Amino acid sequence: MRFFDRFKQGELRLTRIEAFSDGVFAIVVTLLVLELKVPVLKDHSSAGELIHQLVELAPKFLSWLISFIIVCKFWLNHHHLLGLARHADYAMVWLNSIFLMGQSFIPFPTALMGEYPTNRLAVCLFGCVFALNTLLFIALNRYIVRNLLKPELLGLQDPHALRKAMVGPLSYLVGAAAAWVSVHAAFVIYLLTPLFYITPPSWHGPAGGAATAGDGIRD
Amino acid sequence: MRFFDRFKQGELRLTRIEAFSDGVFAIVVTLLVLELKVPVLKDHSSAGELIHQLVELAPKFLSWLISFIIVCKFWLNHHHLLGLARHADYAMVWLNSIFLMGQSFIPFPTALMGEYPTNRLAVCLFGCVFALNTLLFIALNRYIVRNLLKPELLGLQDPHALRKAMVGPLSYLVGAAAAWVSVHAAFVIYLLTPLFYITPPSWHGPAGGAATAGDGIRD
Amino acid sequence: MRFFDRFKQGELRLTRIEAFSDGVFAIVVTLLVLELKVPVLKDHSSAGELIHQLVELAPKFLSWLISFIIVCKFWLNHHHLLGLARHADYAMVWLNSIFLMGQSFIPFPTALMGEYPTNRLAVCLFGCVFALNTLLFIALNRYIVRNLLKPELLGLQDPHALRKAMVGPLSYLVGAAAAWVSVHAAFVIYLLTPLFYITPPSWHGPAGGAATAGDGIRD
Amino acid sequence: MRFFDRFKQGELRLTRIEAFSDGVFAIVVTLLVLELKVPVLKDHSSAGELIHQLVELAPKFLSWLISFIIVCKFWLNHHHLLGLARHADYAMVWLNSIFLMGQSFIPFPTALMGEYPTNRLAVCLFGCVFALNTLLFIALNRYIVRNLLKPELLGLQDPHALRKAMVGPLSYLVGAAAAWVSVHAAFVIYLLTPLFYITPPSWHGPAGGAATAGDGIRD
Question: Is this complex scored with an ipTM above 0.90?
């Protein structure tokens, strides 16, 4: 048996993979708020000074908002994807772990962009990290669709799925490039990107009929 | 098919939504304690200096206590609500994600009020955030009751439910307004608000019979 | 219907209560390590300076160890206890929430004792918090055994259970009192207390036969 | 009944043990990123200064990467192992708790090595902690295989399993020793160790036939 084939062995329980992944997702989105540090006030009772300090925190609030929405979108896609798999194997678990490594890294570029919103490199890195995360998700997606798809879903795949999926990473990379021209443009692109693909994925059968309602991800 | 109708598609697994939500709730309540920082003592062995410093921390303990109780109440209501749904769709997942975003934000206003309990704006913001969170929950509640209710629960809704639900946000807003007169009054209102709606929700059938015991949220 | 009776209504799903509780337990034990801060070295490459600094951290390691073991013990007892319940009601959920509030507070006294191990008040507070936590668990335990016990377990209760359960809080209070004489004695008592009740609980039937193997907590 | 036999009593639910363990694993891997602190820049907008600071963070990124991969590997092995058990008893729960204590400790040596990558003691301690963690896992593994194995898996054990399992701790100890000669060599060994045993475990029947596909860990 060849070395790489060994990774296709084993039938692992999806429930624990989901539990571990859900834990990572939940902690990532909640840790993001820790970057919103309470400002230091000279006059503790001054509402004016506090409002001034909170306005200064605006880039941090915005970074937090963008990352939160994107991680929720990843969670939703992950939820959808694992619903397509009939079981897990070792290759999938490692692709999933590397994907989760990318997710758990998100608080760092988020904090960096929130702290230095005028630093073109910090804003650029934010987009690069999210582009990379989307590519890691696409790799996981392709592996599951090709190797672990539930039998009843075979042939129901959207032939344009990969092309559509590449919209995400491309858009983040456009934002990352835009940061060197205008950090404001980059912020706008990062904020708009999840909206492009926030709608539910559709699964079309070979005859073109929509198969979303019966796509087998029910509980 | 119209754009917004696409969000009503898909049948998502409630178990993973609950797992993700439970993770966020659990992390939020546990992160709250991180704001209770160990005080810096000049004389490490002095019990007197420590007791003095712990008394200084009293507003932080109180903020922690109030937020903990309120988040637990949100968790309980969320638990109850998801027990009413027959399945999930994309619109519900996004309403749930935005609601969880509000929950994950709670450590920030809690820390702010704990750090600056005499700052009217900090105390006011605390109430505003909780009013907003309650509104986000009401939005999720309405969507589920109108679109995803289990068939056996149809017609069992409390006609006064919405009016009752508005007590929460109104009470928090009264607290937020009271902060500009007296921060002590605001603290008292924040502490009392969850007590108003801490009792179990009642579901009455059309004939007025109590239907709580059979409201379908059993495991 | 009287006010307090309303809390005995509702049949809540034990699975979500367990998921929320497990999340809080898992986060508490893992957050404890955050108090073990990397020491500041003048000479970054000096093994000698690092070993000196790590020895200085010994009280923090010890506090971490004690709290970790005790929280695991609470988790185990909680696991056992919820296995006895046939379902949950609102009163149980609130007793559980208050118990979890106590658990989530544990990192604070742990950090305090680790930071100021020679401060009698800090060491005393540690014991008081754990005594209180044990009392909160006993309250939850009593409520479940009296109101929510699975029918097949009725009459199988250990008549000495409460007296045994009081060993924990008493021992912690003895430790808390000992802190005013010798902090070392208090550390020893805190370390030994979980060993007293680390063994599995036994359930004896009315005829005195051991009923542990069939105590209904199987999956 | 002898004292130690009492620990072999009780049939505990594997689902909650898995939920608690998954929570700890998920939090550990996600907390690791908190050590990647946003650098302090003099000129907030300087990309050059930021890139210089990020290069300085390289040892922290590397420590984070190594620990993340290793903890994922532990999670995967733990997942596999608990799939072999027919139920849990108290001894297993305590072995599991001590193993999780080791896991939750990982952020500390990771941060230490990331902060002081030229300090031989810091790099050495990292290897020692992982060697100890692997030994704790082996202890848990042995206990389950000897006492709690599902009946259908009896006799399917790999006779070389223990010898293979010792490769991990030995390799980490070699790395720990190598740190005193060259910290770079130690980093390389730590990075390569998980690759040695990243492939799926094989279970061979007495007749030598591969039994992986039917090793009973399916959901």
Answer: no
DSSP-derived secondary structure letter, D148: T
List the chains bordering chain D where 3 or more Cβ pairs fall under 8 Å: A, C
Report the amino acid identity of residue B82.
Answer: L
Euclidean distance between CA atoms B168 and B131, whole angstroms = 7
Give the separation between CA C6 and CA C8, rounded to whole angstroms. Answer: 5
Closest CA to D80 of A11, B16, A19: A11
Q: If chain D, 219 residues long, is cut into consecutive pieces of 10 residues, what is the mean pLDDT of each piece?
A: 57 82 92 89 92 93 92 90 88 93 95 94 95 94 88 71 77 93 93 73 41 34
C-alpha span between A37 and A115 (Å, rounded): 11
From C27's Cα to the closest Cα of chain D, the distance in A is: 7
Tokens of D118: 């030229």
Q: At what angle do helices D58-82 and D107-115 cross, to 10 degrees?
A: 160
Q: How confident is the model at residue C83 (pLDDT cuts 50, 70, 90)?
A: confident
For residues A217 and A156, give the distance between their C-alpha atoms in angstroms, rounded to a whole number. 14
Say which residue the tokens 């941060």 belong to.
D111
Return left, alpha or beta for C201; rule: phi > 0 is left, psi -120 to 50 is alpha, else beta.
beta
Contact call for C122 and B50, based on CB within 8 A = yes
Contact C27, C45 (CB under 8 A): no
CB < 8 Å to D45, chain A: 116, 118-120
Distance from CA of A217 to the nearest CA of B (A): 6
Which residue's structure tokens are 């912020």? A187
Tell me the C-alpha to C-alpha distance, in Å, between residue B71 and each of B39, B106, C20: 26, 9, 12
> What are the pLDDT digits (tens) for B75-117?
988 988 898 888 888 889 999 999 999 999 999 999 999 999 9
Closest partner residue to A116 (CB to CB) among D36, D41, D75 is D41
Up-side HSE of residue D61: CA atoms within 13 Å toward CB?
A: 11
Do residue C116 and residue B79 have CB atoms under 8 angstroms apart? no
3-state helix, strand, coil in chain D (%, to 5): 70, 5, 30
3 state DSSP class of C12: strand
CA distances from A201 to A78, B8, B98 (A): 12, 12, 20
Please compute, for residue A140, the number of CA atoms within 13 A of its CA located in the half-sphere on the CB side: 28
| A119 closest CB neighbour out of D34, D47, D72 | D47
Residues of A with CB under 8 A from a CB of C: 23, 26
In whole angstroms, what is the distance from residue D94 CA to residue D3 CA? 15
Look at A6 and D198 and tell me if their CB atoms are within 8 Å. Answer: no
Using an 8 Å Cβ cutoff, are D12 and D87 in contact? yes
Distance CA D6, CA C202 (A): 9
- Concatenated DSSP letters of B134-175: HHHHHHHHHHHHHHTB-GGGTT---TTHHHHHTHHHHHHHHH
The radius of gyration computed from the CA coordinates of chain D, to the nearest angstrom, equals: 20
| DSSP 8-state secondary structure symbol assigned to residue D180 | T
Choose among D72, C78, C99, A22: nearest CA to B24: A22
Q: What's the predicted TM-score (pTM) here?
A: 0.87
Q: Classify burial at A214, counting beta carbons within 10 Å of its beta carbon; exposed 0-12, middle 13-18, buried 19 or more.
A: middle
Record: contact C200-D10, CB cut-off 8 A: yes
User: Distances from the Cα of A110 to the Cαs of A190, B97, C192, in angstroms?
Assistant: 12, 19, 45
